Each structure stands twice: as C-alpha cells, then as structure tokens.
Amino acid sequence: MELQDLKIIFPPVTEARLFPYLSLPMITSYLRNKKLKVEQKDFNIELCHNIFSETNLLKFIESYKDKDLQNIKNIYRLEFAKYLYENQKELFHNVFINKNSDNELKNDVRLVRQGIELLLESSFLKKEVTSLPQMISEINMFIENEKDIGSVIQKKMLVEFLNRNPTKIFGISIAYYSQLLPSLLLCKWIKELMPEVFVILGGQQIMLRKEQLLKLDDLSKYVDGLGTGAGEETLYLLSKHLDGEVEKYDVPDFIFLKDNVQKEIFKKTDYHIKDALPPDFSDLPYKNYLDEEVHMSIITCVGCYWGRCAFCSYGNRSREEKNYQQKTPKQIAYECEYLIRNYGAKRINFIDENTNLRLVLNAMRILNENGYRIFFSTRNRLEDILLKKEFCKELKDRGCILMSVGYETNSQRILDLLDKGVTAKNYQQIIDNLHELGIPLRFSIIGGLPNETEEEVMNSEEFLRKNADKIGIDVMQMLVAEPTTYLAKNPEKYNVTITSDEELRGNKLLNYGMGRMGATFNYSDGDTFNERLNRFLEIYKNVNPQKNDELPPDKRKSAESRNHFNQNSYVLQLYPWVRVIKNERTLLMDFLWQRVFPLPNVIYDNQDYLYVVEEEHQIYLQHFGDKGSGILVAVNEKEAILNEAYRK
Q1: Which residues contact 425 (CB under 8 A, 6 or more apart)?
Q2: Which residues sit opposite 611 in a β-bridge?
Q3: CA–CA separation, 333 vs 336, rounded Å?
Q4: Dihedral of the CA atoms 341, 342, 343, 345 (nearest 10)?
Q5: CA gyration radius for the chain?
Q6: pLDDT on residue 647
Q7: Residue 157: helix, strand or coil by DSSP?
Q8: DSSP class of residue 549?
C-alpha cells in the first residue's frame, strides 16, 4: 500500500449536507498541486448514506419492543420507522442516486433527513455537551455500545478509511460546535488504531476556541496539533516538517501540543486567496448530497469587508488583523467555468461570510461573456446597493436565485449598538425590489438583543408579519457570545455580564446541535434569557414566511379554500406518509410535517381514505385536507352508499 501524506475529513454531525463543505476541496486542490498524496472524505454525508438502511431501520424498530407504546412520542417514532423501512429503497434511490427535481423529491428529501435524525437521536455523536472540559471527559470515559448505530458506523468508516492506505497526517476540519464531540472520538480511535499517525484539528471551531482547547490537559492524548488559520500552507509545510525538510518553526498558523513545546503560533501564513486554485471535488460524492439538486460552492473572499458586528465571530478577525482578502472577478469567473466544465455545475453557492455583490456581478459578466451561465446564491448584508433596482435586476438576469441576509432586527437603535452598519428604514425598499424581481430573500434573525425593549420586539415582529409574503427565514437564534466576538471581549459595552466562559449556551430549541455556542451571560435586568427566548418563540409561531421551502400546507397563503364544496361527495385520500394509528385513541400521524392529530369519532377510515357519513361532518375532512394530510377526492353517490354500508 502506498503511503499517503494526508487524509482529511469533514466530520459528523452537522446539517451541512446540501453540498460538499468547501474546506476539504480547497485544501485538497492546493496540496495536490504541490504533489502531495491526499485523500479527502466527507464523513458527515457518508454517515447519512450508511445509516439510512433497511438493516438499521429494522434494528431501530426492534429496539422499541420494550418501549412504552402508550406514549404518543414512542408510538410516533415506531410508526415512522416502519414507514421508512417499507419505503427505504425508493427513498434512498430518489434522494441520493437519481435526483429528479420536483415536489415529490422535496418531500422525499425531508423524510430521509428526518429518518437520519431518528436513527441518530440517541447516539453518542449527538450528545449535547455544554463545556469543553466536560467534552474531553466524555471522550475519556467513552465505552463502545453496539446499540449506538451512529457510533458503530462512524468507527467502521474510520477503520476502512485508515486501512485503505497508511498516512502520515490525519486532519479533521471542524466548522460547527456539533462536530467537536464526534471529532474528538475519531481522534481517540485513530490513536488507538494507529498511534504513529499525526492527528490535527482545524477549521472555524479551532480558530474560535483554541485558547479554551489549550487548557485541556488530556487533549494531547488524542491530538498532536491545532491549525489556527487557512489550512493550505499549514498542512503542506507540516508534511515537509514531518519528513525532516523544514523546522517546526516554519509551519504557519499551527500549535504543536506534545510535550508542552508550544502554546501559540510561531508565524502567520503567507497564503493569499488570490493564490487559490479551483476546489477539487473529484473524490467526494458531490452528486449524492441531501438536497433536491446537485450544487456546488466557492468563496469569493476571506473575512468580511465590514467586520464590525458585535455578535459576529467571523468578520471581526479580518478587521482586527487587517487580513481581509478578496478574489478578482476574473478568478471567480474562471472557477465557475471550471466547475461547469469539470463537474457539470448548474448552481453555485457563494458561501462567503459576507459576499461583495458588486464583485460577484462583475464576475458573472465575465462568465457570461465567455459563453457560460449559472444559477447562484449569495450571503450578504442588507446594504444600500440593493436600493438600486437596476442593480438587483442585473443580479437576477445573470442568475441570482437566492439571497440570504442578516436582518437581526429593524430597530435602528439596536443596529447601531451592534455596529451593524445598515439602515433599517431602507429594509422595505430592498425587500420590495427583490420580491418584485423574483429573487427569494431569506433572513437571519437574532432574539434577546441587548437592551431591546418590548416595543422594539413588537415592531420587529410586525415588520416581519407585514412582509411574510415577500421573505423567508433561514435562521432564528438567540444572541450568542461566541469567543473572539466584540460582544465577548467587551460585554459591558453591550450591557451584558459574562457569568461563565466555560459553561456554554447556545440555541438548543432553535438550531441544529444547539447551534452556535458561547459564554453564558446575564442581561442588564438579570437572568432573563428564558423570558426573552419565550418572547422570541412567539415570532416563530406568529410569522409564516412564504419564501421558506419547508412551510406546512396550512401555513401557506396559497392553500386553496374549500368553503364551498358539494356536501357528502368527498373522501380524503391520505398521502403515503400519513397513517391512521389505532391505540387508546385513533390518531392521524403525518410523518412529513411531524404532526399528530386525534381523529374525531365521526371520521372513519380504510387506511388509504378518511370519510364521514353525516353531511355536517364533511368539515372535518376539509380541516385535515387543509392541514396537508391528503387530497379531497370526489366520489359518486353509489360509492357514498357503499361507504355507508362499509361503516355499518
């Protein structure tokens, strides 16, 4: 077997499963150009492929033999697992193998995603740990459990990956807090299986939390070093160092953990984004991600050209270190063309911390002049350039199909306190421009903002309600004091008091894997986090953003009203993912929208249909039709008579 220089993975568990996370393809491209032997693997998506199987669903079903099946939660999970087991082959094929983008595929993707979470929900990989010392303690005490489907599969994947070819270096790129615990478990296993392998952690979470990680004495049992910046040059020179060609002091943005030799980096990297090559997706299953279509991503910049928002752990580094970097329009156009020619890309997501829209538009002009077109999405601020309708129109004409933006609040006072650098009074015109031109707009919203009054919360909610037809909402999260943010560094300025930077708080109720995690803090009026959270949840309940893909049918304004239909001439044909379950009560379970309804005793069923006998009870069928449980189907008088006979 050939010795590899490096194996690099994107670890479980995160919902970043729509397309390949970009860190691996960028690093792989750079290192292969330097003639290093590199193998990349997305453990996060491949865990999904491996866990969503008939075998694992059957194990889950069998594990419920000893559960309390009078408990609706348990009944729902068991019945959902049975549904997935019956349809696993078709669902897997539709979602991961042969994507045909339509409404049915959207439903299949949602069902598979929920099925994966069902199989993972009791796994160690999803354990919610709220401090790094507790996390390393969990790793120290970890005992393998054959009933933990997720952990068993992850170890099997690791063993196969390690045994395929030996390697000098094993790198793990950690973007989200929810990946930290599974990553440390992987490190432990690597050291047990191949102690000679040099194990490193890098990525956004390591950049944020390196100081806290360095305080963990046991970390060096499993990890040899921490990458604290862009990984390209770091990994190249680390490989050269391990070959004896350069000194450890030549390895940039890196901390060696063994023997307490080093607690801070020796030097900064010289790597610049203008030196970046197009990302290399060649050995990733880029056609088999958890979405309705195949799409890819690139970045146009590193950091944020604004870099002042108090709550942002990404952009302010580029301001403090004066290292904001940006590609040229020609470079971006070339990368897009490369992805089109080599991978058949039709959609590319610009996944910057803050996309420079003028830069992207210039790049699209060049791309179009070269005879290529793509659909693209951006992540950016609600900046004044979007007041210019002609600018927005050109974005649309050149392929913009989605724009994700930071709304946070429409209180100018709070926006100024946070140094957001946008003008709230311009929001409406920007929303109207994009809506009229057909560019879907998705907001991120922050709750629990410092010194926010009830009147400001009400005004923000009313603004969102008024614009619900024109917007989507990507993320709702409570304010988080992540490491390196201005909020965490100078809490007094924002009228909060840090109570613990070891015990962390995130967004357990609102975001996947607790979301972003930061120091625990109190507001100027004391420990009012839960009160503010409950108020924020009211916005979630009261605002139905119509530009969201995943909005239940009864929340959509386009839902047809059926106030007038021919009485006694309809039955409700249930969708395949809706089941009637008879226990102490008769329940209607909707696995797509994760809802359970008690059925009135005036409704009858034959598993595929719901029907009523009395004319005044037809309204119940309409109700469940509006909820998205099925389709009202006309029946003739003879069939109605047969249904009456069947009922008797």
Answers
A1: 412
A2: 604
A3: 5
A4: -30
A5: 26
A6: 44
A7: helix
A8: S
What SS3 class is residue 479?
coil
Q: Omega into 13 within 30° of 0, i.e. cis?
A: yes
SS3 per residue for 310-357: CCCCCHHHHHHCCCCEECCHHHHHHHHHHHHHHHCCCEEEECCCCCCH
Neighbour count for residue 537 (Cβ, 10 Å): 15
- CA 515 – CA 31 distance, rounded (Å): 31
Cα 623-629-635 angle, rounded to 5 deg: 75
**Residue found by looking up tokens 């995943």 in the block:** 550
Q: Kindly report the number of other CB atoms within 10 A of residue 13's CB atom.
A: 26
DSSP-derived secondary structure letter, 97: I
Chain-centre distance for alpha carbon 217: 31
User: Rounded distance, CA 493 to CA 417, Å?
Assistant: 9
Burial tier of 1 (Cβ tally within 10 Å: 0-12, 13-18, 19+): exposed
Structure-token match 């605002």, residue found: 543
Q: How many CA atoms lie within 13 A of 646 on its CB side?
A: 15
In this structure, the number of other CB atoms found within 10 A of the CB of residue 619 comes to 12
Q: Alpha carbon 129 to chain centroid distance? A: 19
β-strand partners of 406: 381, 444
Q: Which residues of the chain have pLDDT under 70?
A: 1, 101-103, 259-263, 317-319, 321, 558-568, 636-648
C-alpha span between 31 and 194 (Å, rounded): 23
CA–CA dist 11, 7 (Å, integer): 12
Which one-letter amino acid corresponds to residue 628?
G
Q: Give the C-alpha distances (Å, rounded to integers) separating 202 from 121, 206, 227, 237, 288.
A: 26, 5, 4, 15, 25
Nearest to 52 by CA among 127, 136, 134, 119: 119
**What is the rounded CA–CA span in Å between residue 273 and residue 3?**
29
Name which of 587, 571, 576, 588 is nearest 627 in CA terms: 588
Q: Give the pLDDT score at 264.
A: 72
Cα–Cα distance for residue pair 585/599, rounded to 1 Å: 8
Q: Is pTM, for the whole model, over 0.85?
A: yes
Q: What CA–CA distance (Å, rounded) separates 417 from 420?
A: 8
What proportions of the chain, in percent to the nearest 5, are helix, strand and coil?
45, 20, 35
Q: What angle do CA 527, 532, 535 make, to 5 degrees?
A: 155
- How many CA atoms lie within 13 Å of 134's alpha carbon, on the beta-carbon side? 8
Helix (H, G, I), strand (E, B) or coil at 437: helix
The pLDDT, as a whole number, for residue 99 is: 83
What is d(CA 263, CA 617) in angstroms, rounded to the nearest whole number?
Answer: 73
Q: Contact, 573 vs 606, CB < 8 A?
A: no
d(CA 241, CA 247): 6
392: left (phi over 0), alpha (psi -120 to 50) or beta: alpha
* Token pair recorded at residue 285: 């299953």
Q: How far apart are CA 51 and CA 632, in angstroms?
A: 36
SS3 547: coil
Beta strands in 423-551 (DSSP E): 441-447, 472-478, 496-505, 518-523
Spatial CA neighbour of 479 closest among 308, 305, 309: 309
For residues 90 and 115, is the Cβ–Cβ distance under 8 A? no
Distance CA 171, CA 6 (A): 7
CA distance to 162, 201, 209, 243, 471, per residue, from 259 (Å): 26, 17, 21, 20, 54
* 473, two tokens: 């909402």
Give the pairing of strands 198-202 and 167-173: parallel
